[in-house]
Amino acid sequence: GYILFIIKFENLQELKRLSLGVIAICSTMAMIDSVLRYWPLHTTGRSVNFIMLINWTVMILYNYFNAMFVGPGFVPLGWKLEISQDIMYLQYCKVCQAYKAPGSHHCRNNCCGYQNHASFTLFLLLAPLHCIHAAFIFVMTMYTQLYNRLSFRWNTVKTDMSTARRDPLPIVPLGLAAFAATLFALGLALGTTIAVGMLFVMQMKIILRNKTSTESWTEEKMKSVFPYDTGSRWRNFKQVFTWSGVPEGDGLEWPVRDGCHQYSLTTEQLKQKAGKRVRSVLYKVTEDYSGACCPLNKGIKTFFTSPCTEEPRIQLQKGEFVLATRGLQYWLYGDKILDDSFIEGVSRIRGLFPRKCVEKCPCDAETHQAPEGKQKNT
């Protein structure tokens, strides 16, 4: 089936595994430092602090597993249009041998979509908040422990900070190993706050504009308004976040702006794909390429300009052909041509590859004809 409304900047599964591992370390260290060193459970305020740490962890785990196991949702098996003539507005999927519902995509991994978008976004919000709380515990733990232990000398004046001990004393003093572990956890907490916080900001922009990152690529080339943006950020927000926890609609039909219809976006996608095929360029591989993300043997500029995207790299061998549909100064994106797949149009091995390892084929190539209308290099 098709996954509904993919947010395509992520390998969501790897992202959440990495974040969950960091959060587990930060949670464990924060609870240890809080109870044993910085804020032992002697007062109500310190108990509330400990309960908050547990609360962050529970909410993060809930949204993590909800986003992971609920999934984005799927188009029902055997889905068909109520009006058969509307098939002309839809894209055809050769993998499923069926027409694609508007807004649906295939994904290689567990992704973010219609059913788990809210849970994924809450996960991205709660993780930095928890790490900020944990970072505060780490900083205060190291500060208070060092404050009680160290003596500082300035010229002939010596101030013994150990005389200003704080009550209550820590249950377990901060040793060298514990200090190193706390410092390491602090680095993880700050890094996670920045990295995951940036992803949260990106998700909120997507939600408030009511479009996926895949649809954003289409919208950049559209001359008309984006049909699913209701024009109100609050209405867009409410389509994802509801009091019941169930997103609005069924994932197949969505409210559209005045002057648009359910197939406005798919019509534009078909038009852009047709133009892409016309502009595509056939290349012949002149150097082997291993599929490395940042290849060292393809030049310094190719190495440092590797696209920061999850789009796959494809392995190439000398003598193969690729059909490039778009590109950058030192990188191209296209389909590898295998056997007769160029003629049949069934090649689906797609990805990025360095421009340096290919050369443009002449239009009168005997084995493969260049795409009609090819005017310029991609």
From TrEMBL:
It comes from Cebus imitator. This is Palmitoyltransferase. It is a multi-pass membrane protein. It is an enzyme of class 2 (transferase). Keywords: Acyltransferase, Membrane, SH3 domain, Transferase, Transmembrane, Transmembrane helix. It catalyses: L-cysteinyl-[protein] + hexadecanoyl-CoA = S-hexadecanoyl-L-cysteinyl-[protein] + CoA. Belongs to the DHHC palmitoyltransferase family. Its main location: membrane. Its EC number is 2.3.1.225. Residues 283-361 form the SH3 domain.
